[in-house]
Specification:
Helix content is about 65%, strand content about 15%. By secondary structure, it is of the alpha+beta class. The strands form 4 sheets. It has a 4-stranded antiparallel beta sheet, covered by helices on one side. Strands 1-6 form a two-stranded parallel ribbon. Strands 3-4 form a two-stranded antiparallel sheet. The longest helix has about 70 residues, at about 110-175. The chain starts with a helix and ends in an 8-residue tail after the last helix. Belongs to the outer membrane factor (OMF) (TC 1.B.17) family.
């Protein structure tokens, strides 16, 4: 029994450790963020409300149907409800009715309200999809920052490993009197500086991981990490398209543009609804009712009277009323006129905002297009600089090993290589992210493959 419990505990520990060691890919991070973001959940609830508004607008086109009944008892003087004659007795009365009203015409406001509700549901869907787009970009950027930090940290550790070898060799040369003590101090200072870089790099990776986890709304920061992958510059033909071509395509599918355009459509419907108040309203009504009273007296045909039972009275005293009602607006203190003016202003503002949003998108795409070209050149320049710095470092190391260069100059050559490697990593991920932004505006999904 003890052995079985021990085995189960070991299996549980292994399972927990495996779960804690999960490494997240970019695709998993993006999908998780979209599924668990609280703002998205709020927007989804807003979308559900918009769908309910649409149902309300459909209901406004239909006739209503209401039933009512009342039960009362009177003692003393009262009016007999069945013959409208005065009576002085105790009476038990029942009244029941069914009524229906329908709007036949109200300046087409009910039709415009239905159209607006449909458009508002579509607008809320665009709003939700636009938020998802923003989250995908933010997660991709945060993910690349973690990747960049991890790659830089690996570089720092590799550089420190080389310096440790140089430090060991320098100690031997100083001990044998080949090199002065100052060279050892210089190498030790370089090693200390690289250790500090490692500490800073680990801190940067931790902060980047925490920022990414917060975007995913994951609070277990210690057990959250991304997949250990190294990404080369992905192949892309995006620059074969001009910025104008990318912008024209973006206009056809970007959710922020569709949202802005839908706001213009909503404003147009609001104006139609406001103008509808100038027109008459025509409605129709129908009512069926009946009643019962225990003081009812009806001639029996033989010179006497009798009180019909409950069911008979419902049929005897039932009745139908129906008709139509026309309301013509004449003057309402300029309320309708002012509402129309407000709606016209709102429409113009929506049109201006739509043009501003298109201009902002064009500027963003133009900037992204320039950024891709700029960061591509910066990355290529960083590679060339690293190549040159590495050759210079190899030459300096050869001279240092042969006693032809002091430790200070050698450490400077090494520092320049370190800086060049850091520049390569930084410009590489800057270029990748700008490239992905531009592809995203062209309608391509976010992927590092």
């Amino acid at each position: 029994m003890k052995n079985s419990i021990t085995i189960l505990l070991l299996l549980f520990t292994v399972c927990v450790s495996t779960a804690q060691m999960r490494k997240w890919t970019l695709q998993e991070c993006v999908e998780y963020a979209v599924e668990h973001n609280l703002t998205i959940e709020q927007f989804e609830l807003d979308l559900e409300n918009a769908k309910i508004d649409k149902s309300d607008a459909i209901g406004d086109l239909l006739p209503n149907l209401n039933g009512s009944t009342s039960v009362s008892s009177n003692t003393g003087f009262s009016i007999n409800p069945t013959n409208n004659l005065p009576t002085n007795s105790t009476a038990f009365n029942v009244n029941a009715s069914i009524s229906s009203n329908v709007t036949l015409f109200n300046g087409l406001r009910n039709i415009h309200q239905l159209n607006r509700a449909k458009m508002n549901a579509i607008s809320n869907q665009y709003r939700l999809d636009n938020l998802k787009d923003d989250i995908r970009l933010n997660v991709a950027n945060a993910y690349l920052l973690v990747l960049s930090g991890k790659e830089q940290l690996k570089t720092f550790k590799a550089q420190y490993a080389v310096t440790e070898q140089d430090l060991k060799k320098t100690r031997e040369l100083v001990a044998s009197g080949v090199l002065p003590q100052g060279d050892l101090l210089e190498i030790e200072a370089t090693a200390a500086n690289q250790q500090q870089q490692i500490v800073n790099g680990e801190g940067n990776v931790l902060i980047a991981r925490v920022n990414l986890a917060q975007l995913l709304q994951i609070t277990d920061y210690e057990n959250f990490d991304i997949a250990e992958e190294e990404f080369a510059i992905p192949p892309s033909d995006i620059l074969k398209n001009s910025a104008k071509v990318i912008f024209d395509k973006a206009l056809t599918f970007r959710n922020d543009i569709k949202l802005s355009e839908s706001n213009v459509d909503l404003a147009e419907q609001d104006l139609k609804i406001a103008k509808g108040a100038y027109l008459p309203t025509l409605g129709a009504f129908f009512q069926y009712g009946s009643r019962y009273s225990d003081v009812t007296q009806i001639p029996d045909g033989n010179g006497g009277v009798y009180t019909p039972n409950f069911t008979d009275q419902l049929w005897i005293f039932d009745g139908i009323s129906y008709g139509a009602q026309l309301n013509v607006p004449i003057f309402n203190g300029w309320s309708t006129r002012n509402n129309v003016k407000r709606s016209q202003i709102s429409l113009e503002k929506a049109k201006v905002q739509f043009e501003q949003d298109k201009l902002a998108l064009e500027n963003t795409i133009q900037q992204a297009y320039v950024d891709v070209s700029t960061f591509e050149k910066a990355y290529e320049a960083a590679l060339k600089s690293l190549e040159a710095r590495t050759l210079a470092y190899d030459y300096a190391k050869e001279r240092y090993d042969n006693g032809l260069m002091n430790a200070f100059d050698f450490s400077q050559a090494q520092a320049r290589v370190d800086n060049a490697k850091a520049d390569v990593i930084r410009t590489k991920y800057d270029y990748i992210f700008r490239l992905k932004i531009l592809e995203f505006y062209f309608g391509l999904p976010i992927s590092l493959n």
